[in-house]
Amino acid sequence: MRRVLLDRSVLLMRGLKGDTAAIGNVCPHRFASLSEGRFERDLVECPYHGLRFDMSGQCVHNPHGDGRITERARVASYPLVERHGALWIWLGDIMAADPARIPDLCLLETTDPTDRAPGYLLTKANYQLLSDNILDLSHADFIHPATLGTGGEIAGTKARARLEGDIVTVEWAFTGKGMAMERSLRDGAEVDSRFEVTWYPAGVMILRNDVGPVGEGEPAAKRAGVHIMTPETSRTTHYFFENADAGRRKKLALALDVFEREDGVVLEEVQRNMGDSDFWDMEPLILSSDSGAILARRVLQRLIRRERARSATASHPPQKARLSQPF
């Protein structure tokens, strides 16, 4: 399958033995898309002139003339790891690729598949805007008043954000009537609610929500979900998400609808207003609810500067940050 990742066209392949690979999708001959060609016996054939490439990106068959294969007859190959039901790709310096940096999402693997609800949306907004959206859940009171909103309860709660290494965690805890879509199930009774978002560079988040009777400590319901923002371009994002708790499959359609009609509309309008301007250059007003999102942006700034410095030290031109993300 073809994916555009950080402005690069990438071909993702699975071989006969189940192994996976990621290579450049553009044939070096006349720049046709290899993804439009045939894939047989772990080889992909260019649809234009029939050059064949293996899963390492090397051309192994030239049907023209004497069949000579030159040194330039290859496409890029990218480190790829399959873990937690996702493929994680590294588009930067190969020597810097480190699978240990892949976040631990084992909660997806320990949940009954019948209780897992995966989803995907291509959103016309920068990936950091989507991360901001999850890191500041107070927006739910205003964008989702009839479903995920809490009638001002979460917005009125001061978010507690902390930084551990490169990982940001932000938490809200309050007593109230909780999310609008669940109030009728409790006949308006108050509950203790806790929301926690953990962010891993460059855009992987785990969202946890515990709800229980007031003062009893142990929550009656524990929910968890994974949200992953993978840049397609500087202004578009592959948004992957999966809920991992009982009964949530039935709510997937609602989640997709809520994001497309509400979050997505606002975020895409924000992107149009920003254009290609840098977030900090626009001098945004900072609210207390932004604490987690601001920490995450600062971490990302630092990591990008470090990667660019390493690239310069290695004597090749600085590139955009290529942090590990699923496709």
UniProtKB/TrEMBL annotation:
Keywords from the named record: 2Fe-2S, Iron, Iron-sulfur, Metal-binding, Methyltransferase, Monooxygenase, Oxidoreductase, Transferase
Region annotation Disordered: where it falls in the sequence: 308-327
Cited InterPro entries: Cholesterol_7-desaturase, Rieske_2Fe-2S, Rieske_2Fe-2S_sf, VanA_C_cat
SUPFAM superfamilies: Bet v1-like, ISP domain
Rieske domain ranges (all copies): 1-89
Coiled coil: none
Entry's EC annotation: 1.14.13.82
A single MF term (Gene Ontology): metal ion binding
Pfam families: Rieske, VanA_C
Gene Ontology biological process terms from the UniProt entry: methylation
Enzyme class: oxidoreductase
PANTHER family (alphabetical): 3-KETOSTEROID-9-ALPHA-MONOOXYGENASE, OXYGENASE COMPONENT, IRON-SULFUR DOMAIN CONTAINING PROTEIN
Stated name of the protein: Vanillate O-demethylase monooxygenase subunit
